[in-house]
Every structure is written in C-alpha cells, then in structure tokens.
Please model this.
Amino acid sequence: MSFDHDTVTGFAKSFGLFYLIAMSIGVIIYAYWPANRKQFDHAAHSIISDDEDRPCP
Amino acid sequence: MIQGTWIVQCGGVGMVAQLTALERTYAAIILVCVICVGVAMAVAGRGDLMAAHGWIVALFGMVVMALLLRGIDAPDPWEERFREYYDDPTKVGIILSLIWGVIGMFVGVWVAALLAWPDLTFDAAWASFGRLRPVHTSGVIFGFGGNALIATSFHVLQRTTRARLPDQLSPWFVLLGYNLFCVLAATGYLMGLTQSKEYAEPEWYADLWLVIVWVVYFLIYLRTLARRREPHIYVANWYYMAFILVVAILHIVNNLAVPVSIGHAKSYSLFSGVQDAMTQWWYGHNAVAFFLTAGFLGMLYYYLPKRAGRPIYSYRMSIISFWGITFMYMWAGSHHLHYTALPHWVQTLGMVFSLVLLVPSWASAGNALLTLNGAWHKVRDDAVLRFMMLAAIFYGIATFEGSFMAIRAVNSLSHYTDWTVGHVHAGALGWVAMITFGSLYALVPWMWKRPALYSARLVEVHFWLALAGTVVYVFAMWNSGITQGLMWRTYDQNGTLAYSFIDTLVAMHPYYIARTVGGLLFLAGAVVAFYNIWMTISRPAPVDEGAAADLPVEPPAPRAWAQAGE
Model:
C-alpha cells in the first residue's frame, strides 16, 4: 500500500470516527465510575469551603 | 504611565522585596539579556521597522530593571511567606488586564466610528482602519483577556491545589514577558508590521518570544500540580491547562515562517494557498475555542460556584463537556472556508463538528445556570454574580449561533457579512468580557483584603451599561449583516445583481452608527469598572497590616454589601 494522499485521507476518515467514539465511551465510564463519585463530590465542594485560603503546610 | 506610577507607589518595592536575593539576581540577569537582545535587534535591524521594536524591547527591559533596582538590596523575605499563596503577579495582572481592556475597547469604538465616518483617520497612516483594527482585536483578546487569564489562573491554580506557586520569579517572567509581546504586537500594527494572519499578526521575533513565555507558563502549571495537596485536579485547572497547551501548539504551527533575514521584520509563511488558509483557520477557530472559551470556562467553573456559594451542579457533566469541547473544537475550523478551494469533505467535516459542538457547549452553559438554580435571590442582589449568569447565557446564545452559522447553507448568507462580526461580539462582549468582569470583581476584594468593592452601585451601573451595549451592538450587526447578505444575493429579472456594493454601504450606515453607540456604552462600563476597582485598591485596608495577615480571607457576603450600596 503506497503512502499517498488517498491513503492518508482514507485513514483520517475512518480512524477518526473510531477513536472519537472510543474516547467518548472512555470519558463517560470515567465520569460515571462509582468509585470516582467521592473525589468528584469532594472537589466540587472543596472550592466553596474556606479551608483553601491558605496552602497546606 | 498610570500603571508605572501604581507599581512604584503601591507595590514596586514591596513586591521586589518578596523575591529572594537569588531570584532578584536571576531577574537582573534575564533583564540584562532582554536589554542586550533589544539593542542587538535595533543594530541588526537598522533601516528596518525592526529597529524600532529593538528599542522598545530594550526600553521595556530598562523600565522593569529600574523597578527591580529600587528594591534590590531589600532583606530576604520571611519564611512566613510559605504559609500564604503568592498573589503579587495576580494583582498586577488584574491591573494590566483592565488597562488593556480600556485601551482595546477605546480603539474598538474608534474603528467602529471609522466605518461610519471614514474621515476619523485624520489623514494619518497609523490611524487607518487596517492598522487600528488589529490593535483593537489583540488589545481586547490578548491584552484584556490574556492578562485576566494569567492573573486568574495563578489564583485558581494555587487555591484548588492547596499549593503555593513553585517559585516567585517565573510567574513574573510570564506576566511581564507576555505584556512585552502585547506591546510589540500593538506598536507593530501601528507601524504597519503584520503577517496578515488574523489574530496571529505579530511578526516572527515576537512569535518566538511568546513561545518562550508560554512554555514557562505551562511549566509553572505542571510544577504546581506536581506539588498539589489535593489528590484530584479540580476541573477549572483542566480548562486552564487545555488553554495553555493547545494555544502553544496552535501558535507554533500557524506561525511557522522564514524571515527575509535576521535583521528584517518581514517573514514568509511555510504554508501557501489553501493549506495556508486551512492552517490559519485551524488556528483562528481554535484560538476562539481554547483562548476565548476553554480559558474562560476555567474562570467560570471556579468563580461562579465560589461566588454563588454552591458547588457546581454536576461535576460529571463538567468532565464530559471538557473532553467534548477539547476534542470536537479541533475539527471545526474548516467551517470558515465554506465555498472555497478547500476540499468539500473537509468543509463538511468542519460543519458536522461545529454542530456536534453544541452538545458540550450547552452542557457547560446549562451546568452554570443550574448551579445558580436555587440561588436566584443572590443573582438578583449581587451584580457580580449577575455578570457571571449573563456570561453563561451569552455563552449559550453564541455557541448556538456559531453552530447554526457553520451550516453551509446558512453560511452562504452570513459569510463575509456583519453577521459574523455580530456573532463574534455576542461571544466576546456577552461571554468573555462578562465572565472576566464578574471574576475580577469577585477577585479584587479577596486579593487586596478588602471587605467589599468600593461601590456596589457602580457595579450595577456597569452591569446595565455592558448589557445595553452588547444588545445594541449585536442587534445592529444582525440587521446589518442580514441586510447586506440579502442585498448581495438579490438578482433582477435580467439575472444581474440588483444592488451595487455602494448600495449596501448606504443601507448599512445607520447600523454602523448604532454599533458605535453600543460599543461606546460597553467602553463606558469598562471605564466605570476601572474606576471602581482602582478606588477599592487605593482605599486604605480596614484593619492594620499585621492583623490582616492572620485573618482568613473571607469572600464578602454578597447580600450585606449589595444593600449597603442600594
């Protein structure tokens, strides 16, 4: 198979679809993974607490 | 001028004294190098416009050196400083952002007026539309927006990681180096220096300098994250990181060019023809995506929940929309090149990704508004929070409009007309400037340890000026753009164009006047903001310095001071 314009565009047109779908599934799994819930909740609440007004020692 | 006086009087010596002796030495070495490079540019570029830029670089280095020397022999700062965050660069960044904002918006009103009254160039070459317009765009995007992003990113980064910045020199290098780039950009345009790429006009030496500055900026982020005390990296930092990383990639690729000679400002792009157009609009659209969207979403995801006192509605949705925005936007740039020599399938790709982008964009806008759901009384009472709410609404409007305009058939009407200009300003005034002003208003009392802003009433005044200005501007440009687009495509019975180009100009004239008025209202709001923040800073702190250092910095209770100003 020669490495010409058609090969590159053919690869771009097919591979792009699959890696974007795979990435979307990966992101959704990460966002909804039950074990991650705790750290997400902690992160969301930590910015509105007053604890963060000073760096950790 | 004002800025220099302010640094000298209020912060200069004190801020230099915060640097360690070693950091002051390094700063002096860097400044000597900058001055030498400036002089070398002036010598190598004699007889070329580059010489003027050489002198500007040298002068900039000397001014900063003078500020440094005033405090060079101060004693080393106390170890106590490690118990506080390092906020001096953020403070200066806020001031610089506001100065650039007022300058950039003033020039914006000027170029708007030029379109209605072309005589306002006063027969001066530097005041022609083609030279002033990039001063406006770079002034507001890079000067106002960029400085606000740098200032807020240092603030957010430290608070969300619970870690101090890794050192005290590199943030100054980034902030001042970036402003040197902005000065080179603006002065270059006035002299007629441009590489004719929209939002990437500065010539090769300014571009190289920005690469150095930007790499240091990214390293500050990585080094601070490496020292973080919070295991999870808060989502605002993801957006700031995407902004820094992707802008570096875009900037380097789009500005690949070969200068005529080392002593010559002019350079030639590595790309030509349709490849050049595609590279430019890959850059241009992602500048919108990662400079004007991702960075400011970082602001939104921190300052809006903080100000509202409520956690973000859905943290999961913020993650999903982050990855959606970063990976979809990359492919949308080709919608700027509908009906051109660009292959049809690449145009279609850009159109499709622009439509898909609506999902993560509205997820972000909805997430912001749902965060406020249940706190509408705060939005009513607190104009600062209302700025942020309005930003989220305009973000939703502008992203819907953008997806709509990317559809090929719609683009055939909208492209090259004032509708595009209206769309850009719905985003720039309604989204970017509103979230910036909201965030800066929230940030200023925290940074300078004041209980509240100087005047809540002036924030109200600014809010309504900004909203009125944006609405007048955007409606004027919608009318103008659609009128223009329709006149361009109207044929008479004989199959020839019904209107000449001059006919369209006459039709647009009233809208151009209305646009100038809208811009003037927005500029007036920015001047009010500058005055209000200036007075907040210059008003003496309510408690003495020693006691203030031990007090936790409480965000002001919005309700209490909103009443005080009413």
